[in-house]
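Incident review: delayed structure delivery

Summary: a single-chain prediction request sat in the queue longer than the usual turnaround. Root cause was a stuck worker, restarted by the on-call engineer. No data loss occurred. The affected request and its eventual output are reproduced below so the record is complete for anyone auditing the incident later.

Affected input:
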Amino acid sequence: MATLVAIAAAAWAWSGRAVTAAPVPAAAERWFERGLDLLREGSYESARAAFQEAVGLHPAYVEAYARLAEASAEADDERDAQAALLKVTELVPDATRLAASDRLRLDAVRASVLHEPVKAIAAYRALAEAAPSDPGGWLDVGRAEEADGNRAAARDAYAEAVRLDPQRASAHLRLGAMQAHNGDTASALASVREAIRLYAAASNVEGEAEAQLRLAIIHNNTSQAAPARAAANRVVELAADPRYLSLRLRARFELARTAVSTGALREAETLATDAVREATDASLPSVAADGLIDLGTTLMIGDRLTDADARFDRAIDLAGGGRAPRTEMRARLQQASLRLRQDRYDDALALSEAPLAFYAGGRYPRLEATAKNIRSRALEYLERYDDASRLADEVLRFADRIGDDGLAAVALDNLAGQLTKLGALPRALGYRQRIEDARRAQNAHVYLAYALVSRAELLIQLGRGAEADAPLAEVEQRIAEGHEAYTGRRNRVALARALQAAAAGRDADVIRYADRVDRSGEPTETSLLAQAAGELARVHLGRARATTETLVGWARAASSSSSRREIAWRVGLALLAGGEPGAVPGVAREAAASARAVGNRELAWRLQALLALAGRAAGDAAAAAAAAEARNDFAALSAAWGDGAGSYLQRRDLSDLRSVLNTPSETSGGPS
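Output delivered after worker restart:
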């Protein structure tokens, strides 16, 4: 790696203090090279310390100041980053006087520090292409691509560094991190283990500890608690030296995550509390806050929402006040995601507003996309579908541009959910299939489980219940095998099977599956819908057990408007079948109006047809108007769906409603 001795000399000449500068001392250059290795492997606090040693030994060491600025920015210390960058400007007041390569190198670092990843990529790529055999240059390209959110391009750059120098441990380490992000766990583990071997062979304790920590993270992210704990404990052993405090603290936070995943919450609390205290005492707020965010996220995945919220609050306190702004915004964004889980959609929007503004403008494109995804989901639940789909489309375009199937799948999931709630089921199904294909290619089982059930649900809604057997059976098999990524979908699978049976007219099976849905906690969309479907089947079999008051309560208990409408339809059918037509308008009329208001013709026609049938049974003159509305809504739906409406109308749970689609001059029975 060439140094910028010439820059320092030129700076001194321009400032009038001297004509020439002393060469960089060998000790300073060693510290610089050490810092550069640390920066490239991701040990940012240690890299800062190394660069500070270099500039302490040689105060005119321009490139060391530049890289110090870069390491400080990576460590989320904007104040120190700006101070180091200002020192570069003092030493080099006129960069146009530099050699082209030196100017390009400064441009690359400056762009990185100022969070201009596109400029940084261009500069680092130009440097790498000018010295194509230098693996360090490709490591810098990879880091810049990561900053732009382009993990596939980063992976390719790191792979090139490995190809050029198979003995460079930091290249294997960085490559492994990207392979893990891209879902290739087996390759990621192989790359990181090779980095560990190379660091150990070189007696590079800090590098080995950093690689062991990455190994622990990969294992934790794939629910492998025992190897995660072993790797994190190894980091603690390796990083016993006070110089490696940051590494040791990060490892203890990783141990806390492992403890949460195994249910050892008291142990996790002790580990996290001690690590936060030590990090705070050592003036490492971003290390403490980052660890709390990761711990909170693990708690959130485990449905310990209150505990997660407390960790996010503490992270915001530690990182706030300008101490670690990027970390603070990450904590706020995770808390916004938590608010979605709590059905607090307005709060999710409010919490995500500042992070989105902070990330916008190309500074942190992947985090910007994450913020947009969260806001899109909140807007969806608030039924602001135009705004929701606009944000999801923006994320999808970004994901497609960088070739990130995982990020694209999240955006597609948002779009599919919005289309489903708008009644555009055939279009939603197309998105669901693409999501499933992406998750299967990534071997991302946590997301694949959800994708399989979601596609099956749409197939059932579209009257293609037989096609739903394969995805549901795949999930059921994984649940039976105890696969952790799938067990959390048990209730959704049971509900899907109940709705599949309802669409086929198998009432006994509806009851059997609906009763498998857990109802022990607070009512959820899944449990309420299962109760409504099960009660309708019981009414059909003469075994009704819910009172009218109870049924009406179910129709009003769901947290979202879209859920309330769907439950209201099944509750209304149960009331009608149970001889209570007069109670139907109380649960169905408002639901029908709101379905039409948001543009969901599929649900609107079902609710209007239900009102028409109830009106006829009760002798209500409004029945004819409701029937006319149902016919109009179905006509619009049929035009939008085309051939997709054919199988849909064959659903047995729609059989009574089909008579409403006949004009008054037609006989009952409806289209076949």
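Verification: The CA atoms of residues 8 and 60 lie 6 Å apart.
Action items: add queue-age alerting; document worker restart procedure.
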